[in-house]
Write a structure and sequence with these properties.
GO molecular function (chain C): cyclin-dependent protein serine/threonine kinase regulator activity
Number of helices of chain A: 11
Order of helices and strands of chain B: HEEEEHEEEHHHHHHHEHHH
Radius of gyration of chain B: 33 Å
Largest interface: A-B, 88 and 76 residues
Number of strands of chain B: 8
Mean pLDDT of chain A: 83
Helix content of chain B: 40-55%
Protein name (chain C): Cyclin-like protein
Shape of chain A: globular
Largest sheet of chain B: 3 strands, antiparallel
Radius of gyration of chain A: 21 Å
Family (chain C): Belongs to the cyclin family.
Mean pLDDT of chain B: 72
Structural class of chain A: alpha+beta
Low-confidence stretches of chain B: 1-52, 269-278, 370-379
Distance between the termini of chain A: 37 Å
Number of helices of chain B: 12
Oligomer: heterotrimer
Pfam family, one (chain C): Cyclin_N
Keywords (chain C): Cyclin
Strand content of chain B: 5-15%
Chain lengths: 370, 379, 362
């Protein structure tokens, strides 16, 4: 037997798949464990060899970055092995994600909880950026929550290195509601500030318990943003009218954030407004955000162990999850690399949508993967 | 967003300044009934937020239990709550209590005009619970450090919870009041001492109030969203009926009946999702108990132990750099406007230039510590 | 004030914990760093193992047939790999791929042959696959069709068939730190030196240094030394004065012990490697090796050969047996035990088996 094959078999034996917890068109997720320790893990099996251009880009990105990043607030890739032509990623098992928590109406958030989640998100993101890596798909359902309350950034299927000078990047990244205006204007040269905008949207969503900027199409997204934050002027954002896909979408006045976030403290609103600055170069970066007064003011961020989490999530059998197999919320530590490629039955068999309210919003409109 | 902006503020409950002066909330529409107090300086109280404002509960279904006047007849109807937690409208209050204390028309407890407060929560028991808890918190302000062990502290907490329960549910009121009085006398000194710790307590209270307001806001948002969805569904359903009538060969009556049935199913599915948020007070209590066990440490911005060679280089504002000519020229300004930062690429190059510079190369046949998969040579 | 306190705490935390340098968290450091002796050993033992296997296969096919075969030795294998390494820049120039792609593909190629031998997998196809894979891992993807149509006599299966094997051999560790980026960084940082006027660092010094970095790619340097060390050695070859000034500056910042004490011998070795081995191999010599390779290739890896077909059939049979056995087990688990609904355990067991079965199906 080849050395490579032999090493692979040894790896494969370390892990046991217990049950399937989700399936998509090109990835299957299992709950499993480490054979020697019984430590719970999630095993994401990516079907390879069915794409005309070979190994899929999102699989490559995910493996490439998770192999390098080791941080408390980034999901840990424990091992990689192959079975036949399948790529298996062994990931730490995580109970739930922030989207589930936001939507769980039985949970009450204290301001200190929101502060703790924000700090953990920013720490994970700062580490990505410190490693010159853009995540490009931050949203509540990519922020997974461990049983000890730690938040972990997951789904690196759209991640990439910071671009070298003059190199173009695709603007078809980041789920629409969390996508910054420069990408909506078709900008091909951007920076870590794109992830920061997403963080701002998540921050707002944690306070509102509902998505802050839920545009219905790319064009509507811009309008939604401008309605909320006012149409930018040349002074707010020099040069934005020169961006490739710039179109005027109407003049909207800037309404104070205070009007919507009536309960938020001054520090909170200040930080929020600095995440949502139009000019990307003036947007706060992750490190400065972590040093913002908001985090030092009372109340202290909640200890992770005290953060609200959905009740009895892990013990729920799969069938009860909205009556369909849904990798994104089934609770394993991973989601399929490209959720848009997954079967997500959003309605029950008779065509009636029985899911809770907030989930009625369209989650199927994911960005095109590039 | 369009939904959010166009829905009037009245569903949310109006924001009323202390003293009852109406604020023209940003979302108010002209058709929105305005809260206007007839005796504007009289009623204060209710649950205030940090800026001293009171968010008042307000519903289109309001009706005064005393005179039966409702919002349909009197758009300016404003209901207030008595200290015995009964609602009545301002004109009844004026009528009954202007001449002095008088019995409550519902439970006969003697009331004064000044003791009416605006209603904050739809559910008056929540209103009452908050008032009771606030009162009890003032009397029973002992802390963990005032007890010799956790057990006696727990006993104390249990007693407090017991008293609170009694007051909320009107159980053994005279005995309970006596217990409170006894406690006050026994612990006068300690209570006084704990007043000095008031600052922190106030902070906690502020938090709680913030939370309460958030909850309310949340509820309103949810309501608005639901309304919007309902409206959309109605419209789609109507459109569908028209479409089906156009295309279907079935009788018009059947098509309409089928669509109606579907709409019914939708609305019943929805009704199960709305009546949550009930036991928030309980949840809060659980969280409060928890926070005495695990303390929240102050924020530490970065907690990892990675070293990024920061001390080995200092990045400059500008470099003479052949690789970033394109960025420097950028005549259209599109790279700048898009937020591209050549500094980030420079930073990466600089880090790469110093990373591992002092690393001693491996020598000999010792396996490197990090490598896990040794090359297997047997076959 | 709270901020001050937390800042203090952070400083304390910093001084208490030993910080790990980021480079040492990379897979490059953890999995692909060798001593020259280790490299030698890995290659000889891989070679010996391959020779043993192929000899057996020959004998099984026809006893006595392996006696006259002149198998390649580890050095000859290396020579062939090196030839195909030199093809990468040519292809990259043709496609106008960024330097990142070129350097990454070369790293992949070298790493692949630390896990495999050329007698199993010919470097021509591995090179094409490594390059195609590198375009994807560095985010410069092109379609397979435009890739193969621009390379004569190449089909898409030449590229794709090995993609999984290459990825597997790389341990799915795709990120690579490169010396050319380190050189760019040094070049920028030279501008922070207080006493270096612009005319002391003319463009042609950089141009010479980058040539040495590119030459280092033909060698084992990146498997032994860090990118920054290779970049600095390349600069030393172009301008010893500049290189020394810069290194001195870093030495001051580094404190503890003078950097030059450990760095100087390292730089000397890298310079030696670049000068001695940083050039394409002699084509005639390689041609001879390639001719002999045709005779000693592992027949199991040559599609169409008797041994290849036999191996395929055996594998197929094994998989089939396994699948049948599992299907049988599952069936039995469903019916045995007397309980028509199956015990709890049975259900779990069944799910597990089904999951494994599924695993084998594709």
């Amino acid at each position: 037997m080849d050395a490579v094959e032999k090493a692979n078999t040894a790896r494969q034996k370390r892990w046991v798949k217990d049950r399937k917890v989700g399936e998509g068109t090109y990835a299957v997720v299992y709950q499993g464990r480490e054979a020697s320790t019984s430590r719970k893990v999630a095993i994401k099996k990516i079907k390879v060899g069915q794409f005309k251009d070979g190994l899929d880009m999102s699989a490559i990105r995910e493996v490439k970055y998770l192999r390098e990043l080791h941080h408390q607030n980034v999901i840990e890739l424990l091992d990689v092995f192959s079975s036949k032509t399948n790529l298996n990623l062994v990931l730490e098992f995580l109970d739930s994600d922030l989207e589930m928590i936001i939507q769980d109406r039985s949970l009450v958030f204290l301001p200190a909880d929101i502060k703790a989640w924000m700090a953990m998100t920013l720490r994970g993101l700062e580490f990505c950026h410190r490693n010159f890596m853009l995540h490009r798909d931050l949203k509540p359902n990519n922020l997974l929550i461990a049983s000890d309350g730690q938040l972990k950034i997951a789904d690196f299927g759209l991640a990439r290195d910071f671009a070298d000078p003059g190199h173009k990047m695709t603007c078809q990244v980041i789920t629409r509601w969390y996508r910054p205006p420069e990408l909506l204007f078709g900008c091909r040269y951007y920076s870590s500030a794109v992830d920061i905008w997403s963080v701002g949207c998540i921050f707002a969503e944690l306070m509102l318990r509902t998505p802050y900027l839920p545009g219905e199409s790319d064009m509507d997204q811009l309008k939604t943003i401008f309605r909320a934050l006012g149409t930018p002027t040349e002074e707010d954002w020099p040069g934005h009218t020169k961006l490739p896909d710039y179109v005027p979408v109407g003049q909207f006045p800037r309404t104070p954030l205070r009007d919507l976030f009536t309960a938020a403290s001054g520090d909170t609103l200040n930080l929020l407004s600095r995440f949502l600055v139009y000019e990307p170069r003036r947007r706060i970066n992750a490190r400065d955000a972590l040093n913002h007064a908001y985090f030092f003011a009372l109340p202290h961020p909640s200890h992770p162990s005290k953060l609200p989490k959905p009740a009895a999530q892990t013990s729920r059998p799969l069938e009860e999850l909205d009556g369909n197999v849904d990798i994104a919320s089934a609770g394993p530590g991973v989601k399929a690399v490209a959720p848009n490629k997954l079967k997500r039955k959003l309605t029950s068999p008779d065509g009636t949508d029985l899911r809770p309210l907030a989930r009625r919003l369209d989650f199927t409109q994911h960005v095109k993967r590039s | 967003m369009s939904n959010r902006a166009s829905v009037g503020g009245w569903l949310k409950g109006k924001t009323v300044r202390k003293g009852g002066i109406t604020s023209n909330a940003h979302t108010a529409r002209s058709s929105t009934p305005q809260v206007q107090s007839t005796s504007s300086t009289l009623f204060s109280g209710g649950v205030k937020d940090a800026s001293g404002r009171t968010t008042e509960y307000f519903s289109m279904d309001d009706q005064c239990p005393v005179c039966k006047s409702d919002r349909y007849l009197n758009p300016k109807l404003r209901l207030l709550v008595s200290s015995c937690y009964h609602k009545m409208c301002e004109s009844c209050i004026d009528r009954l209590f202007t001449l002095g204390p008088a019995p409550c028309p519902i439970c006969q407890k003697v009331l004064r005009k000044l003791a009416f407060t605006p209603q904050t929560f739809e559910d008056l028991t929540v209103e009452k619970e908050i008032a009771v808890r606030r009162r009890i918190a003032k009397e029973f302000n002992k802390r963990r450090e005032d007890f010799i062990d956790l057990r006696s502290y727990n006993d104390y907490l249990e007693e407090v919870e017991d008293i609170t329960f009694n007051l909320i549910n009107d159980v053994d009121i005279p005995q309970t009041e006596a217990r409170i009085l006894a406690h006050r006398q026994e612990n006068a000194a300690l209570i006084e001492l704990n007043v000095q710790r008031e600052e922190q307590y106030v902070q906690a209270l502020k938090e709680q109030e913030e939370l309460e307001r958030q909850e309310k806001e949340q509820r309103a948002l949810e309501l608005r969203r639901e309304q919007e969805i309902e409206r959309e569904e109605r419209e789609t359903a109507q459109r569908e009926i028209i479409d089906r009538l156009e295309t279907s060969t079935k009788s018009a009556a059947k098509v309409i009946a089928k669509s109606r049935a579907e709409a019914m199913k939708r609305s019943s599915a929805r009704s199960t999702t709305t009546t949550v948020l009930r036991s928030n007070a309980q949840l809060l209590r659980a969280r409060a108990a928890q926070s005495t066990v695990v303390p929240d440490p102050p924020h530490v911005p970065l907690q990892d132990d990675w070293y990024a060679y920061e001390d080995l280089y200092t990045i400059r504002d500008q470099y003479d750099d052949m690789y970033s000519d394109a960025v420097r020229k950028d005549r259209e300004g599109i790279m700048r406007a898009g937020g591209y930062r050549v500094e980030e690429a420079w930073d990466r190059a600089l880090r790469c230039a110093v990373a591992g510079l002092d690393l001693v190369p491996l020598s000999g046949l010792k396996p490197s510590p990090g490598r896990t998969d040794s090359v297997v040579t047997s076959t | 004030m709270a901020a001050d306190k937390a800042a203090d705490l952070q400083t304390n935390l910093n001084s208490l914990t030993v910080k790990r340098p980021l480079y040492e968290g990379s897979t490059q450091y953890k999995s692909w760093r060798y001593s020259p002796e280790q490299l030698e050993q890995v290659r000889t033992s891989l070679n010996a193992a391959a020779v043993a296997v192929i000899r057996d296969t020959f004998e099984a096919d026809e006893p006595g047939s392996s006696e006259d075969v002149l198998f390649l030795n580890a050095n000859e294998e290396q020579l062939l790999v090196k030839l195909y390494i030199t093809k990468v820049p040519q292809l990259c120039g043709h496609f106008r791929f960024p330097e990142e792609v070129e350097a990454t593909a070369i790293s992949y190629l070298k790493r692949f042959y630390l896990k495999n031998t050329v007698m199993d997998w010919h470097p021509k196809n591995v090179m094409l696959t490594a390059l195609f894979l590198a375009t994807k891992t560095t985010n410069n993807p092109i379609s397979l069709e435009s890739y193969t149509s621009n390379i004569p006599k190449t089909s898409s299966s030449d590229v794709l068939d090995l993609e999984f094997l290459v990825s597997q051999s790389l341990n799915f560790e795709f990120a690579v730190w490169h010396a050319h980026r380190a050189l760019w960084g040094i070049w920028l940082d030279l501008q922070s030196l207080p006493d270096v006027p612009e005319d002391l660092r003319p463009q042609d010094i950089y141009d010479i240094a980058i040539k040495h970095v590119r030459a280092s790619r033909f060698t084992d340097a990146e498997l032994i030394y860090t990118p920054s060390q290779i970049a600095l050695a390349s600069l030393t070859l172009a301008s010893p004065v500049l290189a020394e000034k810069w290194a001195d500056l870093k030495a001051v910042a580094g404190a503890a012990q003078p950097l030059s004490a450990t760095l100087d011998p390292t730089l000397e070795l890298i310079k030696y490697i670049i000068m001695q081995m940083g050039h394409p191999p002699d084509v005639e010599a390689v041609r001879e090796v390639d001719r002999r390779l045709k005779l000693c290739k592992n027949p199991e890896k040559v599609p169409g050969s008797k041994a290849y077909i036999a191996r395929q059939a055996a594998e197929h049979r094994r998989a089939e047996e396994k699948r049948n056995k599992k299907a049988e087990d599952v069936r039995r688990a469903g019916t045995d035990g007397g309980n028509p609904f199956g015990s709890e355990l049975n259900e779990d067991e069944k799910a597990k088996q089904l999951a494994e079965l599924d695993d084998d199906d594709d």
